[in-house]
Amino acid sequence: MVATPLQTSQSEEIFATAQKLMPGGVSSPVRAFKSVGGQPLVIDRVNGAYIWDVDGNQYIDYVGTWGPAICGHAHPDVINGLKEVIDKGTSFGAPCVLENVLAEMVIDAVPSIEMVRFVNSGTEACMSVLRLMRAFTQRDKVIKFQGCYHGHGDMFLVQAGSGVATLGLPDSPGVPKNVTSNTLTAPYNDLEAVKALFAENPDQIAGVILEPVVGNSGFIPPDAGFLEGLRLLTQENGALLAFDEVMTGFRISYGGAQEKFGVTPDLTTLGKVIGGGLPVGAYGGRKDIMSMVAPAGPMYQAGTLSGNPLAMTAGIKTLELLQKPGAYEQLDKMTKKLVEGLVSIAKENGHAAYGNSISAMFGLFFTNDAVHDYEGAKKSDLQKFARYHRGMLEQGIYLAPSQFEAGFTSLAHTDEDIDQTLEAARKVMANL
Ligand code: KE4
Fold it and tell me: How far apart are CA 80 and CA 76, in angstroms?
């Protein structure tokens, strides 16, 4: 449990040094707690549904290292799997049978993927898939949606979500105008806006890329007909459809959001879960498109550590755990109990609240209106969210330090963890 107020002297000391060594003291901006205030915690270890900071405080964790820990942190199957292979070396830089194993699992699971390429991050996967869409169609423009985040590639840093939204970064400095001039944006869930972009840019749009369930504006699911409408619009206009399932892949269901919603894109990006916590990204899709990727075809993309045997092993073990019957039903039931509980506790305490979840992904906004797009997310009470985040932290509950992030549960979370979280919310919401 956590002492209130938090005793975090060790974290403060280490983080003060970190800020002298690394920009903002972190290796990724959202970890700096900028939008929720207060000091980030320096984490000492993780296991199952829990994390411990360097001061010995234990928390129930709903960040799950931003998605990979869907089976719980440091699952023994993953750790033991790594122990079995690590003596063979950490990287080969050459074909390895483990790549075949994970590739077959991904191809068997994800409806759109007939062939796959492994990379080292979701950013790399999204950058590569954009280059591939342009190579295949010989067109330059791409449509993305406000509030969706596809990694930090230059061409995507236009009205992005996640840390860009959290930090209120406009279009990030350092990104040349001629790079983002080919990136068109539309509000999420707005098919008419997409139709208009196709009409204004005939035969120029290579493709549409989106999070099929948005995690980077908080949690925003697709409205009925939205994904189907995009599928039709792209086909009618000779453009490709890419689902960025870096966050939703193997989380919304074993076959991702595309399996859940029954809409098959031409290309898909993956990351997070398929690396089981080690650095892995991937992109894949129709064989005729993927055959353009070097060395099979002319579109270049490469990576020193891609297909790394340790990362492949962690991914294989994680997907094996997710294949267990009932895994996704368990995740969906537990997460619904959490979100419905949080919303009713907020309302009992007089707060406007809107929550939603699918499988092991959820969001809570302090607003009365349902959130269908980034504008809606931004209208929620961000200051109240910051106070909620801090209050929950002091109650031993570790939530994503931004309204523009989704929450994640795992197979390791128990009913008692959910009850304890709701108990904490009762104390926090009463004094928010
Ligand atoms: P990475 O390069 O961070 O592995 O993946 C980029 C990415 C691409 N697409 C989607 C849908 C994503 O959610 C991400 C990364 N997600 C963020 C959290 N929302 C990672 C956390 C961070 O940036 O520190």
Answer: 6
